[in-house]
Amino acid sequence: DAMVIQNPRYQVTQFGKPVTLSCSQTLNHNVMYWYQQKSSQAPKLLFHYYDKDFNNEADTPDNFQSRRPNTSFCFLDIRSPGLGDAAMYLCATSPPGKNIQYFGAGTRLSVL
Amino acid sequence: AQSVSQHNHHVILSEAASLELGCNYSYGGTVNLFWYVQYPGQHLQLLLKYFSGDPLVKGIKGFEAEFIKSKFSFNLRKPSVQWSDTAEYFCAVNARAGNNRKLIWGLGTSLAVNP
Fold first, then answer.
1. Distance between CA atoms of B96 and B31, rounded to whole angstroms?
2. Beta-carbon count within 10 A of B44 CB
3. Of A13, A27, A35, B71, which cross-links A90 as Cys (Cβ 3.0–4.6 Å)?
4. Residue A68 burial (CB < 10 Å; 0-12/13-18/19+)?
């Protein structure tokens, strides 16, 4: 059973058109992460939540925002996607006290 | 700054060959160490981890890794690879300092196993 669920698996958007990616988890983990992964590269951390405490990476563009309305759900909003934002977006969760990260299947974003 | 270095970006092996993928990290303190695997078209999965204790850790699918503190290394090994091991392998490190919840990732090693 999938424990970190990302929807949709594939998302196509137009240049400049806002898009929202979603992540849900059944693990009740308090930490949730959003990563961007481009082809044949390591995942790049965009931000993470420790409970409701939001932690942005210094080099994450302002174009990327996130919301976590409750423990189970987390959203990635891309306000004005550019061609360079086409990538796989990965959500991960982690239980308190242990930094083992459990990944969802990812959402592949295409920008036309 | 902390960093993780994976020595080989691309590795090509024949089935039944032995595998060793190098991983070195730079951090002077206590660390947690991980190897993640990403099969083609699939999500990242934890292959194995080291937190403390026996420096030789066993993971899934016959993989193992050895933490050598003096060398700041955590190399991944498998005695006999299979075609199904074709994947991208990532080494990651978490510095066990305070409330640090972030992983530092290596650039990954792409492994292709020829049948």
1. 5
2. 23
3. A35
4. middle
